UniProtKB/TrEMBL annotation:
One of its GO terms (molecular function) is transmembrane transporter activity. GO terms for cellular component: plasma membrane. Residues 45-180 form the Tripartite ATP-independent periplasmic transporters DctQ component domain. Keywords: Cell inner membrane, Cell membrane, Membrane, Transmembrane, Transmembrane helix, Transport. It is found in: Cell inner membrane. It is a multi-pass membrane protein. Pfam families: DctQ. The keyword Cell cycle does not apply. Coiled coil: none annotated. Belongs to the TRAP transporter small permease family. This is TRAP transporter small permease protein.
């Protein structure tokens, strides 16, 4: 029997999804910090609304609105990978996984987490090279890469640094997940 969408019960606020237990303390911290990035997206929307008003109602556009919103949204999207990992809500193909018995699923969870940690490590390595070019001048002096616009903020360097940090945190999170999945399997 199907339930009509209009009569479906509303979800309980207490049943809101949060970090999986295997994500550990780091997962709980990432889950709490995510509200900062959610607020950043709301702030970006507000900035865009302000820019539309200033540009079309007052004919006084800003030079900072576009780059600020790109930075805020880009940071949120980068953080989203870490957020989805701690909640175990990332995209996956479960065609075979769903057919596995629980013991094989735990082994698959460990292997998937280890392979993901390795892949994240490669991305962190690549991000490190991006950061080194975005932060250091050829002479070795610290010089943050800027956008080159009239405002020219250092957001390209900042987002590259954030990508690097997030990739390192992803490596750590996947190792924590692999360890806790393996420990859970050893208890069964």
């Amino acid at each position: 029997m199907t339930q009509d969408i209009h009569t479906a019960p509303l979800p309980d606020i207490d049943s809101e999804k949060c970090a999986v237990p295997e994500a550990g303390l780091m997962g709980r911290i990432v889950d709490k910090v995510s509200y900062v990035f959610a607020a950043g997206i709301v702030l970006a929307a507000g900035i865009l609304l302000l820019e539309v008003f200033l540009r079309y109602a007052l004919n006084r556009p800003t030079i900072w609105a576009h780059e600020t919103t790109v930075f805020l949204c880009g940071s949120a999207f980068v953080f989203g990978g870490l957020f989805c990992t701690c909640r175990n809500t990332h995209i996956r193909v479960v065609l075979l996984y769903d057919l596995f018995p629980p013991r094989i699923r735990r082994i698959a969870d460990v292997l998937i987490s280890l392979v993901s940690a390795l892949a994240s490590g490669f991305f962190a390595y690549a991000a490190f090279h991006m950061v080194s070019r975005a932060v250091f001048a050829p002479s070795g002096a610290i010089r943050l890469e800027t956008t080159g616009s009239a405002w020219s903020p250092p957001t390209p360097a900042l987002i590259k640094i954030f990508v690097f940090i997030t990739m390192v945190l992803l490596v750590v999170q996947f190792v924590i997940l692999a360890w806790n999945y393996a420990r859970r399997g050893a208890k069964d």
